[in-house]
Amino acid sequence: MSNGDTPRRLRLGMVGGGRGAFIGGVHRIAARLDDRYELVAGALASDPDRAKASAADLHIARDRAYGSFAEMAAAEADREDGIDAVSIVTPNHVHFAAAKAFLEAGIHVICDKPLTTDLSDAEALAGLVEQTGLVFSLTHNYTGYPMVRQARDMVRSGALGEIRVIQAEYPQDWLSTKEEDADNAQAQWRTDPTRSGPAGCVGDIGTHAYNLARFVTGLTLSEIAADLHTFVPGRRLDDNAHMMLRFANGAKGMLWSSQVSPGNENALRIRVYGEKGGLEWSQEDPNYLTYSPLGEAPRLITRGGPGANDAAAAVTRIPSGHPEGYLEAFAQLYTETADMILAHQQGAPAESLVPNVSDGVDGVRFITRAVESSGKGGGWIAF
Amino acid sequence: MSNGDTPRRLRLGMVGGGRGAFIGGVHRIAARLDDRYELVAGALASDPDRAKASAADLHIARDRAYGSFAEMAAAEADREDGIDAVSIVTPNHVHFAAAKAFLEAGIHVICDKPLTTDLSDAEALAGLVEQTGLVFSLTHNYTGYPMVRQARDMVRSGALGEIRVIQAEYPQDWLSTKEEDADNAQAQWRTDPTRSGPAGCVGDIGTHAYNLARFVTGLTLSEIAADLHTFVPGRRLDDNAHMMLRFANGAKGMLWSSQVSPGNENALRIRVYGEKGGLEWSQEDPNYLTYSPLGEAPRLITRGGPGANDAAAAVTRIPSGHPEGYLEAFAQLYTETADMILAHQQGAPAESLVPNVSDGVDGVRFITRAVESSGKGGGWIAF
Amino acid sequence: MSNGDTPRRLRLGMVGGGRGAFIGGVHRIAARLDDRYELVAGALASDPDRAKASAADLHIARDRAYGSFAEMAAAEADREDGIDAVSIVTPNHVHFAAAKAFLEAGIHVICDKPLTTDLSDAEALAGLVEQTGLVFSLTHNYTGYPMVRQARDMVRSGALGEIRVIQAEYPQDWLSTKEEDADNAQAQWRTDPTRSGPAGCVGDIGTHAYNLARFVTGLTLSEIAADLHTFVPGRRLDDNAHMMLRFANGAKGMLWSSQVSPGNENALRIRVYGEKGGLEWSQEDPNYLTYSPLGEAPRLITRGGPGANDAAAAVTRIPSGHPEGYLEAFAQLYTETADMILAHQQGAPAESLVPNVSDGVDGVRFITRAVESSGKGGGWIAF
Amino acid sequence: MSNGDTPRRLRLGMVGGGRGAFIGGVHRIAARLDDRYELVAGALASDPDRAKASAADLHIARDRAYGSFAEMAAAEADREDGIDAVSIVTPNHVHFAAAKAFLEAGIHVICDKPLTTDLSDAEALAGLVEQTGLVFSLTHNYTGYPMVRQARDMVRSGALGEIRVIQAEYPQDWLSTKEEDADNAQAQWRTDPTRSGPAGCVGDIGTHAYNLARFVTGLTLSEIAADLHTFVPGRRLDDNAHMMLRFANGAKGMLWSSQVSPGNENALRIRVYGEKGGLEWSQEDPNYLTYSPLGEAPRLITRGGPGANDAAAAVTRIPSGHPEGYLEAFAQLYTETADMILAHQQGAPAESLVPNVSDGVDGVRFITRAVESSGKGGGWIAF
To answer: Quick one: D145-318+362-382 is in which CATH superfamily?
Structure first.
């Protein structure tokens, strides 16, 4: 994996992700896994005491444990050994202000999805990224899986011919009862419009399914019809969403996201069908990709196995049959972001496949349009 | 299986199903499998020579090889040893007239789906069935699978609680290219509006998925939004259909049927989610039913295995681990129909789970409404 | 399926298979499924009253319901419309005498496995078959599955290169407790040495696994080491068997059969590996065959699908995705036997793939050698 | 995951694992994943130049990049900030001398498997560990998977009752051709008796399968019969091994390891059957465990899902449906070893489930006995 030109480890800060959080810990493992970052600063919680304590947990020096992201952005921008990049892993409503603060401080940003809770905020951030030229990565982490990269490459290279049908789904079951009334912080903020934005399961997971469909096929949406529903009495945001999609090239799609479907843990799945073949991938069994060339027996392509292409190999750590999972895929985005940041620092900005601020705007538009269609009765609207 | 009171074998006639046909052979195996019928008469093809030759193939006596269904209905009604029942296995456009003829001749009917190509015809047939009191079975054959019976029974008994979400799909790939231009009789009539009716894949397979959702859940549709599309250039009927469904109890559903999705052979699948659990069944692996009670590990229920209920056991021939398939499920409808016919002949009409003429009307309404919604742009309409 | 030259239905008799039996009913469906036989005579039970009652259940005429197989063989041989063939579906200890009686009466035989309970009896039967020239089919029914035929053909055609490793297994769980003490007739005779012969699970199911390995690969055994064991206290025959195998070509194998392995219903499975590729087939999911050419992505070959070869197509009734199962595979042996009998009657004996009396001798030798090795401590002995 | 008492990161050294190596990189990710170690020293290659270059790749300071493990053991033992532990990731023949050197220097050891190439060396190491009281972990990494921990705990708690049958297998296909003649360093040392020891696939992977069977069931072997074979012409060590096993409690087992079975990537799998139920786990799909209580429908237990027990939860990082894989399981052993080392340093030695030097001796005995049985013709010998 190394050719003797080992790059320095980047200095990373984190906003959110203190004690009790879920996704912050994932980001930290992801940052560490390929040894490309060291976590040196944090504004880990809105409560200053919890922020300090959390920082101590993570070997962050006392003077770089900040009480707020604003303080952190200012202080780190001033240090000679200031952070190269910040990870924003808060609930959705904080993304915009935090990202803005770091971009304005000249610090590269890695932000959890969805980008913002509002489309105009998203567009403002995109403007700021363009203006500053900084690296901005959005952690649609499922794009980091080798078999997803393989699928994307196969579609691009024409293995399926013109795409006709896209079936995307992301069901879960953990909100089948009113979990937000229990002592479940994850459920609480995700069902709270003031922290999650206007959508529930559409914003939390539907946006991942949409992003995955876009990532794999490269197609753009032209119209959408969405039927959002809240099944659990008293819940304030949607917990099930059915959508029909029309893509600009004439392809048709369906998208289902649900948090009330018992037996589904995190069952993100995509199926893509074209004139010449089909592909199927399931996140819970991520090391496999089923490829069905029309008129031939389906092939089971495995990560690292025969049939895996260069796009998959480029993001594969260990040999076939030694399963990689969610953390490795997440790490992949961090690693590619590190490459981009180093390239930027060397004055030679590089492209990558990591979702960026434009994908973030697109995702917020998806949420916005889904809510809009559903609000109008579920009929078709332009995207 | 036997209690010493073995019933006599019923005399069966067949309309359609001559040389070159597909589904006729399936019906004959289904009728024979449990030894409840003997095939003694037929109007097996529209061409009289082919009809005679086909009858000879099937050990049908020369004088009961008819040139038309009308001739057959009349002649058989006159015989003392006339047929007890007729199987109608023609292309769709013949169903109505043939079924009408036999009902009017006082002969019980087993008819392939969809019932008719037109909703008013369907309703007329339903009236005739009510008026005559005859047995009328519609071969939505997937309802004969033990694990489908199990699923239905579990839903009825409340194992899932109130139903919230239904995901039904039936993708195939055999019409991904313009197969009707090749010498494929099956493709030709199924893509021909004069023989199939107003819908292509919706009528051919979508109606099976719809029927299955209804059979398993017992719920009725209140609204539908359908996006039918023809992907293969020059094809005259839809080859892909996306639908969103709203059920009268508040449940939401999606239905996808496709004949242009490579890698899918006959991939009928249904998933049902309620407040208390979920169920999943796939036709291509029909001996399994996955049951996920909320908050417990999913159970793999097998046909004949521990966990199989009485509803499944009643339609199971051989022990667990000895797979039954499509033909056995199909046979089940014939066997239950034989029981109904015998009961009718003994003056004690019996109920059964076999889809009947009402289900047929419902299925034609489904096709009609799907075509209607799609024709109006794909928005919601009342069912 | 028909070419206008429909052969007459053969007249079939049955020995065993009366009320309460399992495999007799399977044989009857198998005989009927392709409409090649009519059951006209039977000595269905050792108890004459039960024999008569069972015959009535099956529409067998009163005068052809016999009290013993000897009586039946004599009477049917004398009738002008006597049976063409007999099915012997009794417990193992009756096979020899019954088969002998019918062969001596000039009647073709279809016999359940294992052929006999003793190797010298088996060899005697083989001699009688050779002497009479009659058709003798042994219902190693798993050889009738299309994907098994495909596997055999692929091995023969060299798709795997020289075979190196064979892993055969057949675990069940239904004898995990002392089921023979319950009112379970199936368990009783299968664990009774006077009716089953010297082996329990080895004879009941191990012999199927062995036959399947031989059928698919065509290889012959040179040495065997077997460790038979009885886990359930008080049981009189083995309920678990582990074996290592050495084949004449240098290939190595393992064979496991068990009736005390919870979670296994009828999990016959075979994996074959050669220099150039591997194959894997599981009886419980019989419509699939996984083919892994060395250095390429595995292919999922489906019955009737792309990738299915002529050997599979020849025994396939319905299109891909419409699962066939155990009864269809069983029926296949009956149908091919009917072809052989007709060819014999026309003076032009034909070959087929149906296991015959030689395979029966080979199977009894397998049982004998396994018991012998195990009795000597489990070491290697010549086959 | 943290309670505010974050322990300091341990200082780690590494022997082997320089450029071109495979397992060294895995160990480093495993050490880093839970943030419990920093790699500060290394003797990464036998060639001093490559050792230095490799150290630079890994951010190891120049003065701690050693030319040999002996030099490293001496120097690190002398430093105040010397390493807490060393990872030995060389080919097998170096394990003994390297482990001995570090133990004698008072440094805790993490060693790859198999422990040594010779049973007396293994026993000598065990003596040294006992004498020094140091922590010694052997990276039988598959024991770190949550579902393996769950299985072990279920067996111990009696969920299966007395164990009767154990089926362990570990097939691969990457040595199906003479890969060692290609430029494949991994193939070269693994097929070279001077570096691998007396066994090929038995030592490389069979020992993992054996360890897993022991880990999950806790049973000890009493007898073994092994048939080792080399299929690829010219290869110097076994590439396929079949074994029958007899356990001290009366259980029976089979073990198959192969590197010449096309279609198998890293298909380690274990099935355990007891009086009351069965368990099945496959390494390539490690987030699932199938549990079949006798007489009930099988349950699919998922990592983190309902049904997962405390033993699994203790080693689970992320929620159900977010797959963990090989690297996480490997990391688990490092993390638990860190806990043991810290406990040792605090004078309160702690137990853990991490395989240790005794398991290492047991594994070398397994290899030794397998080679011995096979050398004598494959018959049974005492373990």
So the answer is: Dihydrodipicolinate Reductase; domain 2 (3.30.360.10)
- Most B CBs within 10 Å: which of D276, D287, D296, D309, as the mutation test of the B interface? D296
pLDDT in tens, B124-183: 999 999 999 999 999 999 999 999 999 999 999 999 999 999 999 999 999 999 999 998
Of A279, A9, A263, A298, the residue nearest A160 (C-alpha): A279
> Minimal CA–CA distance to B292: which of B284, B300, B302?
B300
Between helix C119-132 and helix C357-375 the angle, nearest 10°, is 170
The first and second tokens of residue B275, run together, are 């407040």
The class of domain C146-319+362-382 in CATH terms is alpha beta
ipTM of the complex: 0.96
Which chain C residue is nearest to residue A293, measuring alpha carbons?
C306
Rounded to an integer, what distance in angstroms lies between the CA atom of residue D113 and that of residue A338? Answer: 34
Cβ C227–D240 below 8 Å, yes or no? no
pLDDT of A187 higher than 70: yes
Strand partners, C37: C10
Residue type, C84: D
Decide yes or no: CATH 3.30.360.10 for domain A145-319+362-382: yes
Q: Quote the tokens at residue D264.
A: 């198998």
**pLDDT value of residue B20:** 81
Read out DSSP for B11-42? EEEEES--TT-SHHHHHHHHHHHTT-EEEEEE
CA pair distance A253, A251, nearest whole angstrom: 7
- DSSP secondary structure letters along C211-272: HHHHHHH---EEEEEEEEE--STT-SS-SEEEEEEEETTS-EEEEEEES--TT-SS--EEEE
Q: Which helix (H) or strand (E) holds D119?
A: helix D119-132
Task: Select from A297, A302, A305 the Cβ nearest to the Cβ of C307.
Answer: A297
**C20 Rama class: left (phi>0) / alpha (psi -120 to 50) / beta:** left
- CA separation for the pair A300, D341 (Å, rounded): 43
Nearest to B260 by CA among B180, B163, B329: B180
- Residue B132 in 3-state DSSP? helix
The answer to whether D88 and D16 are in contact (CB under 8 A) is: yes
CB pairs under 8 A between B and D: 33
The β-bridge relationship of strands A136-138 and A85-88 is unpaired
Q: Do C254 and D253 touch (CB under 8 A)?
A: no
pLDDT at residue A205 in the model: 98
For the stretch A81-97, pLDDT in tens is 999 999 999 999 999 99
Q: Does the distance separating the beta carbons of C59 and B35 come in below 8 Å?
A: yes
Q: Is B323 in contact with C283 (Cβ distance < 8 A)?
A: yes
- Cross-chain residue pair B244–A240, CB shorter than 8 Å: no
| Token pair listed for A86 | 């910040």
Contact B250, B289 (CB under 8 A): no
Helix (H/G/I), strand (E/B), else coil: C46: coil
Q: Would you list the domain boundaries of chain C? A: 10-134, 146-319+362-382
Specify the DSSP element, H or E, that contains D31. Answer: helix D23-33
Which has the closest alpha carbon to D285: D326, D254, D316?
Answer: D326
Q: Which chains touch C (3 or more CB pairs under 8 A)?
A: A, B, D
**Per-residue pLDDT at D48:** 86
CA B117 – CA B164 distance, rounded (Å): 31
Q: How far is A340 from A134, CA to CA, in rounded Å? A: 10
- Three-state secondary structure call for residue B127: helix
The number of beta carbons lying within 10 Å of the beta carbon of residue A221 is 20
- Cα D1 to its chain centre, rounded Å, is 25
Give the tens place of pLDDT for each residue, C284-293: 999 999 999 9
Assign a CATH topology to domain C10-134. Rossmann fold (3.40.50)
Specify whether the CB–CB gap between C377 and D380 falls below 8 A: yes
C-alpha distances in Å from residue A383, one per residue of A114, A364, A368:
18, 12, 9
